[in-house]
Write a structure and sequence with these properties.
This protein is an all-alpha fold and 81 residues long. Helix content is 32%, strand content 0%. It has one helix at 22-47. The radius of gyration is 33 Å and the shape is rod-shaped.
């Protein structure tokens, strides 16, 4: 007859709950990598979009009249004038 020592826990059967095994961990890692690359790709395309309406910055060419608002000549060194 085998005696059981109450101070020694019995060995566990398999991995504890919530831990992924080898193939499951590999599949989860691959899916995570694909998801992160997809999100990164969307961010790159969104940042490189030539659509001006997607920009939150105001347009420099909007408005009517002369730049500076005075209507006269300016002494500023502007290469665009």
């Amino acid at each position: 007859m085998e005696t059981h020592d109450p101070g020694v826990p019995e060995p566990a059967e398999g991995p504890p709950d919530g831990v992924l095994s080898g193939p499951q961990k590999l599949a989860a890692t691959i899916m995570l990598a694909i998801g992160l690359m997809a999100i990164g790709g969307v961010a790159v395309v969104s940042a490189a979009s030539p659509d001006p309406s997607a920009s939150a910055a105001p347009s420099a060419s909007s408005g009517s009249g002369s730049p500076g608002g005075s209507g006269g000549t300016s002494n500023a060194n502007c290469p665009n004038m």
